[in-house]
């Protein structure tokens, strides 16, 4: 048989050479030389092995995994004895094609180095395949007190190129038909030999205890009616709108251009006995979450003095229906609000549900199958994909590590179909399309996620109508989860996707947004914005549009249950941007009741100068002294109002009222302002020109309200429509005689 194989090899090699070259004599010689070399090597192998595959007398039997020597059988690896084995082809091993139906557990204390097991996962489609796995040892307390980590190695040809990839989190490991744990970690970045970590099943089962004994629902604060003072803003969480915008400019690498009118503001003054920054909003209020939560960061293993990161396998956040840069913009949105896209996510391309993925019902959720958490569905889909480890009736455990460390939560879960597994030393991952929503992820913990098949959580609805150059495009429709950390990112992504339809948008564009956001028990938040320019202007514009969501969801008032987002977005490829140049008045002195003329000058980018004028009748009530004429983009005045009001709002309705947009960036606004008699901002309401006795009482602290000093009084406001987006603003003082 071997001789026949050699003859066929030489014949095929020679024929291939003849077909591929016109210089046949030379190629034939090369082919024969190569064939002879192969023959010599194989004959050497035959000489070193007996007829039944035994090693010749001059050879050394190969070492076994336990360190002893053994005579290889005909099915063992092929060795060429040149002093050391230089070629090893792992022998095929019979493995059960699927996990056993009845779950038994393998005690972690019985694990020994060299044991072979089977890890079950899906590499493509929906077929669960066995992956040959070797146990290398157990690191006691490797992840924390009483939290061990099983170290293993994937030794299967099916994963030789991919090794442990993002999306395999939760793939169950069995030894002798008993469940050991879940694949959960890569041992090092750029790891190329299949080393990986497994979470013991005993630790994961502690999450099942929470599934079987869910916490009693707490009495949430009624932020709309509670008279107790709300906790103050937490500076570390970036709830202030101007801080968010300033941080966004820094993240985008832009100069720190501040709103020119913010010099009038003073920090909020807290009432006596107010809670310290970062205090909880009350019983049942959601705990502030920033980033990944305790215990989810990288752990370290020290080997020969070097630290090797044992990072959890990331959770692919599969995105479809949105531009390819949406993940980067979402990250910027989150960081601007003092939050982060939770650690452990890796944004990847995804697909909308297909016919085959939609056919996957809850019966397909068996150990080794893909398990998906749904954040957004419909025209834009975002689903986090891992693997199911364990199932008992309607209770499920998966991932072997947190999804985002949300704790007790409510995220829709369901099925998924794996399109393919992408090999990469840097970031290998599974690419997936979502299936059907079949239940709820209720526990997002350090050792596992816990889910229940059955009822699904309420989701908000989004509908975004789109017009490009006056022509209507298909609307974007679907649902999204309402969660403190994720929702602002989702809504920002929806706005970005609607504004950057790939078939319509060029390098530069102008965008107008109008609509409203509704949440349970709250008045609607008006969303109104306009922006123009290139990529950075687009990102800032989306950020400004998403600002109300960031402030509300990042507020100190407790949970928000979103109901709907309804928007209309108009785009054009001819952006017009006007930069503020000058502000003048026809007189520097005036009497109360006089009419003066105020002129502004702008220069259009790549265009000419334009002028706009206001005819201003000064209020008769003005007293002698300086009066400020404040002129700028409507968006700047909205930002000023947001910052004044949002910092003093004590209930969600007050915050909603403060954050509802009233002025566009395409409006030129003029205000007549005095600062002679200061007022105060209380409960998001302006109390200008307070009598001195009232102001003194307010400042004495005899009130529960959070307040800030209002150092000016706006006597009059006018506005003019502009043919494009305005940038900047200026102030000018005149004297009242």
In brief:
The protein is of the alpha+beta class and 737 residues long.
Overall outline: elongated
Q: What structural class is derived from the secondary structure elements?
A: alpha+beta
Write down how many β-strands occur, each being a DSSP E stretch of 2 or more residues: 33
Tally of helical segments? 11
Average pLDDT? 75
Measured by DSSP, the beta-strand proportion falls in 35-45%
- Assign a percent range to the helix content: 10-25%
What is the element layout, followed by pairings?
Elements (H helix, E strand, L loop, with lengths): L1 H19 L3 H25 L67 E7 L5 E17 L2 E8 L17 E4 L2 E9 L8 E6 H12 L28 H11 L47 E5 L2 E7 L2 E6 L5 H11 L8 E5 L5 H4 L11 E9 L2 E12 L2 E4 L8 E16 L6 E16 L4 E5 L6 E9 L2 E10 L6 H13 L9 E11 L5 E9 L1 H19 L8 E11 L4 E9 L3 E2 L4 E10 L4 E9 L7 E9 H13 L5 H8 L7 E8 L4 E4 L2 E3 L4 H8 L7 E4 L2 E9 L3 E3 L1 E8 L1
Parallel strand pairs: 9-10, 17-21, 22-32, 23-33
Antiparallel strand pairs: 1-2, 1-4, 2-3, 3-6, 4-5, 5-6, 5-8, 7-8, 9-12, 11-12, 11-14, 11-18, 12-13, 13-16, 14-15, 15-16, 17-18, 19-20, 19-21, 22-24, 24-25, 26-27, 26-33, 27-31, 28-29, 28-30
Helix pairs in contact: 1-2, 4-5, 4-8, 5-7, 7-8, 8-10, 9-10
